[in-house]
Each structure stands twice: as structure tokens, then as C-alpha cells.
Amino acid sequence: MYNEKNCYSIHGLPVLQDNIVWILVRANEALVVDPSVAKPVEEWLHRKNLNLIGILQTHHHEDHIGGTEGLLNSWPNAEIVASKTDLKRIPFQTKSVVDMDELLIMGCHVKVLEVAGHTSTHLAYFIQSQKDVSSNPLLFCGDTLFSAGCGRIFEGTIEQLYKSIQLLNELPKETKVYCAHEYTESNLRWALTIKPNDKSINSRLIEVEKRRSKGLLSLPSSLEEERKINLFIRAKNIEEFANLRLKKDSWRG
Ligand SMILES: [Zn+2]
Fold this sequence. Notes:
With 253 residues, the protein is of the alpha/beta class. It has 9 helices and 14 strands.
């Protein structure tokens, strides 16, 4: 996706079963979020003659960090940004960060948000709107928030995940949401089992089916959109939230 108003562009590279590696590009530089695997990312960067200057890691799962070592072989000076709490599980860190840290990388002002729940430590990266980056704020939220869904709980608690989703929901509504998996269509189908007559969810599903049938990604979404279609964001309290998570976990769609 190229935004003509500025010199940045963001590309979503589908890899593995349903992972998306997001790549921010400025001039001849690139910043990669959660490289699941090295090869397709490396090839894409080479094809565009780009220099990888950094990698942002959201959490330690292999389908998010698996490509980092390989990319470092080609670009040994790339900054590796990840959680200080996960120094052991996320290797090669050059910039170890914690909640609320702010960093400047490739001209982007990035704010670190701790959004645990899917894993005991999980970071989201929020890039404020900047004149020369994007007119919208950007959120790279890994496996915490998905379009029409949220991450499964592997290590964290339902309280943590609830708090994390609430925190992300406090960001500006214009925020573009870049999730790490293409789960939108399946999430919307599940949401319709709970709210079959919901107009917003039904119309979003039609839109997403169209995009997917053309081979396009359903993402990014926006917080404004998620407030309409995401039952986890719409949940009134933690009981409702926990109940939805349980239902989703046992759904075989
Ligand atoms: Zn994960």
C-alpha cells in the first residue's frame, strides 16, 4: 500500500499458513515487523534494493521471530527491538524495551505498549501520525488484537488480555491496525454465530470475502472499524469478554 501523501509505504507479505510480515519502507530503507521466515522477506527486500535497518518483534513465538537470524546474516547491522523481559526467548536483541518506551527508528516515533495475555509478555508498537510518515497513527499489534477477534491465551491470563484490548481501544479511532495473521474472514464467521443479525459484521464479511477472493489482504483494519465489528472490543465487561474467548476457543469453523 503506497500513501502518496508521504514518502513511506507499508507492504504486507503473506507467509506460512496465514502470517503477515509487515514491512515499512522509506526511500531505500526498510523496517520489518515479526519476520516469521527469512527467505521471502529477504527476496522481497533484495528485489526492491532495500537495506533492512530494523526488526520489531512483538513476542517470542516462532512464527514471529523465526526469520530474524536469517535476515541478520544479510543485514548484520539491523536493530532488533524486543521485550527486555524476553531476553532469553527472543535472541539477537540490540534494543531491549519495556512498556511506554519510545524510540526513533527510520524516522518513525515508535511507542512501546505492553499488551500481555496471548503470551506473558507481548509488545505492540504504536507509531504516531507524523507529517512525513502517515496521516494515520499505525499500530502493529502482533497476536493481541485481530480484526474481529483477539489472540488466544497461551501463557497470560484473561484479565491481562482484557486489559490489553482495553488499552489498545484507547488509541485514536483513526489508528490503522496491522495484525500479524489473516484471520479476519474466519473471525467474522464466528462473530455471526454469536450475533447473526449484526449489520456491521455482515457487511464487513461481504467486503472481506471480496478482497480475499481477489487475493488481497483484509488488513489493515482501523480502530473505528473494530469498534463496530469486534465483539471482544464491544464486550461490556470482563465476564462477557471471558465468555466470548471461551466460545471462540471451542469453535470449529
Ligand atoms: Zn503468537
